[in-house]
Amino acid sequence: MRMRNLFLLAGVVLLSVSVVALAADAPSKPTPTSQPAASQPVAHPDCSAWEKLFADDLSNAIFSKGVWSNDKGELTATKDECIWSKQQHENFILDLEFKNAEAANSGVLIYCTDVRNWIPNAIEVQILDDYAAKWAKSPKNWFCGAVFGRQAPAKQAVKKAGEWNRMTITCKGPSITVLLNGELVNECDLKQFTSAKKNPDGTDVLAFLGGPLAPRPTKGHIGLQGKHGGAAICFRNVRIAAITPEPQ
Predict the structure, then answer these.
(1) Could you give the domains of the chain?
(2) Are the C-beta atoms of residues 128 and 135 closer than 8 Å to each other?
(3) pLDDT tens over the chain, length 248 residues
(4) DSSP states of the chain as a string?
(5) Do the Cβ atoms of 130 and 159 come closer than 8 Å?
(6) Buried-most residue among 33, 67, 163, 170 (CB within 10 A)?
(7) What is the pTM of this model?
(8) How far does the chain reach from its first CA to its final CA, in angstroms?
């Protein structure tokens, strides 16, 4: 009887060891990330079914007649004036393509509350021909993909003049991310911009940009800047989709 009990005990021990070994070899479940999805864009979206920001005939836009035109799907301007969406937008993804002429200096304008006096009343995601000698000595927060005058891009990703670029801008309340040609170039939290004189990185705020960004509304018109500095800019496939912001 004692020998039988010993065999049973040995069997239980062997079974326990096997279960522990199998558990150790089993693949572990992935640990969920605590970062919001908006801070992790990895690729430009498929936006083929999204709404066009501007109708083909520009009937839903605010602009000076004769300045902006849509020629076979390409938007361009003859002067340094903006074209604006009549509708105001909040919590959205904006996807577009742009092509710089040499030394082009343009931008995508979001959260604009006054289209007649837009510079201190909008936030500009900068478009620039970074390779032009004209802009070589500009502040880093003027380069393509910057939140203009506020936060520099993390890297240079714009293509040379004459080539088409793709940009995706995700706006969730005070959170703005910019994807340029497949590269995450900017993640900006407007709540951090509480000073009218200094940006969070210590750089000076240009006086004409207005006050701090933190209290600004996160809803407004969307615009494209025209032929600024005498260099042409073209846009195409400008599409938008509404998104649901994550709980704060």
Answers:
(1) 52-242 (2.60.120.560)
(2) yes
(3) 444 443 433 443 333 434 334 333 433 333 332 333 344 457 999 999 999 999 999 999 999 999 999 999 999 999 999 999 999 999 999 999 999 999 999 999 999 999 999 999 999 999 999 999 999 999 999 999 999 999 999 999 999 999 999 999 999 999 999 999 999 999 999 999 999 999 999 999 999 999 999 999 999 999 999 999 889 999 999 999 999 876 66
(4) -HHHHHHHHHHHHHHHHHHHHHHHHSPPPPPPP-S-GGG---S----TTSEESS-TT-TTEE--TTTEEEETTEEEESSS--EEESS-B-SEEEEEEEEEPTT-EEEEEEEES-GGG-GGGSEEEEEE-TT-GGGTTS-GGGSTTSBTTTB--SS--PPPTTSEEEEEEEEETTEEEEEETTEEEEEEEGGG---SSB-TTSPBPPGGG-S-STTS-S-BEEEE--SGGG--EEEEEEEEEE-PPPP-
(5) no
(6) 170
(7) 0.83
(8) 67
